[in-house]
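Renewal narrative, Specific Aim 1. Our central claim is that a sequence can be written position by position from structural information alone. The example that follows is taken directly from our test logs and has not been curated for this report. It begins with the structure tokens describing the chain, in the order in which they were read.
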């Protein structure tokens, strides 16, 4: 398989994974909508904001899965360094099997895409909660804001890591392979010959 073939397969596997992960959240969202519209006690504004944020995240994840599945050719061409201004469905004149270096780059790119896709809606949801929350007690407000701020910071770091893996996968793989090559070249005891002296 070529690098493009592997990238296309990874994109569609990632799309299936996103759908599987989103279905439980979609079920919870529908249950919340039914409960909120049929309950006698009306929900507070913050509860509706939370439900709205969950709904937006579900739509975003399903849309991302749809794009990954139906545009797998285009995304795979970009991951493999193909000129996406040309016909991405054009057969390669010479089909060269992907090297281990190229396979690692595709896997890291897909990992970065998955991490970015699943992190972005959660980070936006926490930011919305942080901006709209208004508990009645100041102490509770301070504690909630501290927790939300820590969660947002953690998700932003995950988002940056995902973007770095997605956009810089080739560079990361090159650094890892070069470091591994340096370690192998040095050998035991800093590259010195560990064999016993000849007599």
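The sequence written for that structure reads:
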């Amino acid at each position: 398989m070529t690098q493009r073939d592997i990238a296309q397969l990874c994109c569609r596997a990632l799309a299936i994974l996103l759908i599987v992960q989103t279905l439980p959240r979609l079920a919870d969202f529908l249950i919340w909508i039914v409960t909120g519209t049929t309950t006698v006690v009306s929900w507070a504004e913050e509860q509706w904001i939370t439900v709205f944020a969950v709904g937006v995240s579900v739509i975003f994840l399903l849309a991302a899965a749809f794009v990954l599945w139906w545009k797998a050719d285009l995304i795979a061409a970009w991951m493999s360094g193909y000129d996406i201004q040309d016909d991405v469905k054009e057969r390669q004149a010479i089909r060269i099997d992907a090297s281990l270096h190229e396979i690692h780059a595709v896997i890291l790119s897909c990992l970065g895409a998955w991490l970015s896709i699943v992190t972005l809606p959660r980070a936006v949801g926490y930011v919305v909660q942080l901006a709209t929350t208004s508990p009645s007690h100041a102490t509770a407000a301070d504690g909630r804001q501290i927790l939300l701020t820590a969660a947002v910071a953690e998700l932003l770091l995950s988002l940056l890591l995902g973007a770095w893996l997605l956009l810089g996968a080739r560079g990361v793989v090159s650094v890892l392979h070069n470091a591994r090559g340096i370690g192998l070249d040095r050998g035991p005891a800093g590259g010195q010959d560990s064999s016993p002296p000849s007599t």
